[in-house]
Design brief:
The protein has five helices and eight strands; from the N terminus they run ββααβββαβαββα. The protein has about 200 residues and is an alpha+beta fold. An eight-stranded mixed beta sheet has the order 1-2-3-4-5-6-8-7, sandwiched between helices.
Length: about 200
């Protein structure tokens, strides 16, 4: 597996751009659409925490465990969310995709489908990963359904695994897609993008 490095990924609906400190205001505006930080089961930053959120992501990039992106909607040229590779383990050819969130107005649109197609394609076809993982709160049923719609397989649940922002402890549901499964997943995501909405 090649070490992930900052890169821009281009699609028809979105462009995934390397996250920078200058994205603070745009990310805060995107999160404000729906006050997403109020959701108990997500990692969306509160408005006054956006700079820290970015700094932590960039620190993860510097130490080689993360590669964060902002999501730019091409139709509006606006940043509408964020996503990243995380828990990068080159020794076993594995990355995870997560910390994903979008402004309410683009949720349940082609944005997430194309973002996942771009990230998975880069992970498998360019970085030569053997497996790409996903994780989510066991109470985040919408996220679980979205991950399953990608074609990811549920690996299991890690009980009492991570703190939520309210101080409670969550169980974490783990999913993955292997390189052998990628061609079918890729075809399915491409079909989802082409079908009428």
């Amino acid at each position: 597996m090649r070490k992930p490095e900052a890169v821009t990924l281009y699609g028809r609906h979105v462009r995934l751009e390397p996250m920078h400190a200058e994205h603070e205001d745009a990310l805060a505006d995107a999160a404000a659409d729906g006050e997403l930080w109020k959701l108990r089961v997500t990692s969306v930053p509160e408005p006054d925490q956006t700079a820290i959120y970015i700094a932590n992501a960039l620190m993860g990039q510097q130490d080689g465990t993360m590669l964060p992106f902002v999501v730019r909607e091409l139709a509006s040229d606006e940043i509408v969310g964020s996503t990243r590779y995380h828990d990068i383990v080159t020794a076993v050819d594995r990355v995870e995709i997560g910390y994903t969130w979008y402004a309410r107005r683009v949720q349940r649109s082609a944005i997430n489908t194309e973002c996942k197609l771009l990230l998975l394609g880069h992970a498998f076809d360019t970085l030569h990963c053997r497996v790409v993982g996903f994780r989510t709160d066991h109470m985040n049923f919408a996220s679980q359904r979205a991950i399953e719609r990608l074609g990811a397989k549920r690996d299991g649940v890690i009980r009492h695994h991570a703190l939520r922002r309210d101080g409670s402890v969550r169980d974490t549901v783990m999913y993955s897609i292997t390189s052998a499964e990628w061609p079918d997943v890729k075809a399915h995501l491409a079909w989802q993008l082409e079908r009428p909405r």
